[in-house]
Design brief:
By secondary structure, this protein is an alpha/beta fold. The chain contains 16 helices and 13 strands. The chain has a seven-stranded mixed β-sheet with strand order 2-8-7-6-5-3-4, with helices on both faces. Strands 9-10-13-12 form a four-stranded antiparallel β-sheet. A hairpin with a 7-residue loop joins strand 12 and strand 13.
């Protein structure tokens, strides 16, 4: 019979293999050794991924490849599940280590985090759980993704609340923080109960000023009762794992993100964070398997007040993936959140500046680092976005089109790409003139 490692010992092992040895130029070196060159350091990070070297991968924002520490963590847990499923399940029934790892990365408390399978699940769990009623208004934008709009539609259908969509800017490339925050502030009404926004628009690459919007909402909340308070809810997936911020920096009330994009986490993992004092206002829509509700059911008692754990949808999941999520956060933290942000922004700056200099290209993502993150969206005169993606694919470059009514070409320089990769993309786009 296979011996099962205690949960804490196993977690320590997973975090240990999450180390990225000498992943950056400032890693400690032996006395007298020359520091590792930055290009070499980032190559070592890229080498942690099993991505095919035959392609230039510019679509990690869709679904990430697992880096070595995450692959090994998943495989170790999968072996446990295959060899002794029941002991493995019972050995990991406490998901505190997963929530603790996410909390440390996000700068919050583990008790404020619910675990989900994706951004979409997090948004639906949140919006369908809000105590909305007829006469309440949900304010969102025309720039948001299907997952936000559809979750809000379903919530409005069930509660009688109304939805209003506004535009934050006329041209994505000219978007400003002041203009976007002002658009939200002007649109708030006495009936507004929710502001539903996206941190980084996957349609254009525009990064919204979440902090400024939260501050505008806070001013509008002055004098309101707790029941009338406007909640700022964020789809944060395309900033999560890119920018070096905490939830306190953003200032929002709830934040949903999948972890299988920029975080490089196991596929089918996500988090939903909310301020501790706000969780009791929510109503779970899927039974959870945490101790709070389950013990109340066993004792024939009323369900307790909602907390974050109770908003983690229950049932059986891809357990080896969920339990391995700490390895992904460890991977990022070993490199350094600040270095990750600096690297991704530098590569994106290189890409945007190159595209902006081409007369046949219309760049839709703002050049300003503060107004964008890791997505670059553009068009080429006389070609459909699909045709551009197809031509790039002929050159072994993986790009994508935005799944919106107005669609652009999207590329995403990231930790799995290099300056040479960005130059290769620019060279091939230039050749399409």
């Amino acid at each position: 019979m296979t011996t099962t490692l205690p949960r804490r010992r196993l977690l320590e092992g997973l975090l240990a293999i999450g180390a990225v040895g000498c992943a950056h130029a400032q890693a400690a070196t032996a006395e007298g050794d020359r520091p590792e060159a930055p290009d070499s350091a980032w190559k070592r990070v890229r080498d942690e991924f099993a991505l095919s070297p035959a392609w230039i991968h510019m679509t990690g924002f869709l679904l990430a490849s697992h880096p070595r520490p995450v692959r090994e963590a998943i495989e170790a847990l999968r072996r446990q599940l295959d060899e002794n499923p029941v002991d493995a399940l019972h050995g990991h029934d406490d998901t505190s280590p997963v929530r603790e790892a996410a909390a440390a990365y996000m700068g919050v408390r583990a008790a404020e985090i619910a675990l989900t399978d994706s951004t979409t699940m997090g948004l639906a769990t949140l919006y369908l759980g809000l105590p909305l009623k007829a006469g309440d208004e949900i304010l969102t934008t025309v720039h948001d993704h299907y997952s936000t709009h559809e979750s809000l539609r379903l919530a409005a259908e069930r509660t009688g609340a109304s939805i209003r969509k506004i535009s934050l800017y006329d041209r994505a490339s000219a978007a400003t923080a002041e203009g976007m925050a002002g658009a939200i502030a002007r649109a708030l009404t006495p009936a507004t109960r929710v502001v539903a926004i996206t941190w980084v628009h996957s349609s254009s690459g525009v990064k919204t000023p979440v902090r400024a919007i939260a501050d505008a909402v806070a001013r509008a909340n002055q004098g309101r009762t707790p029941e009338e308070r406007i909640l700022v809810c964020v789809d944060g997936v395309h900033g999560f794992g890119v920018d070096d911020v905490t939830m306190a920096d953003l200032g929002c009330d709830f934040f949903a993100a999948g972890c299988h994009k920029w975080i490089f986490g196991p596929r089918g993992t996500g988090v939903l964070w909310g301020k501790a004092e706000l969780w009791p206002r929510l109503r779970p829509s899927i039974p959870h398997f945490g101790e709070e509700g389950y013990m109340a059911w066993l004792r024939g008692q009323p369900a307790p007040a909602t907390n974050a754990n109770m908003m983690s949808p229950g049932g059986f999941h891809s357990f080896e993936h969920r339990w391995a999520l700490p390895a992904a956060f460890a991977f990022h933290r070993r490199i350094g959140k600040d270095r990750v942000a600096e690297r991704i922004h530098a590569l994106n700056r290189q890409c945007k500046e190159g595209l902006a200099g081409m007369k046949h290209v219309a760049l839709h993502t703002p050049l300003d680092d503060g107004m964008s993150a890791g997505l670059v969206c553009f068009e080429i005169a006389g070609m459909t976005p699909a045709a551009v993606v197809a031509r790039l694919r002929e050159k072994r470059i993986v790009a994508s089109t935005a799944p919106y009514a107005t669609s652009y070409v999207r590329v995403a320089p990231s930790l799995v790409t290099s300056e040479a990769d960005v130059e290769a993309v620019l060279r091939e786009v230039r050749a399409l003139a």
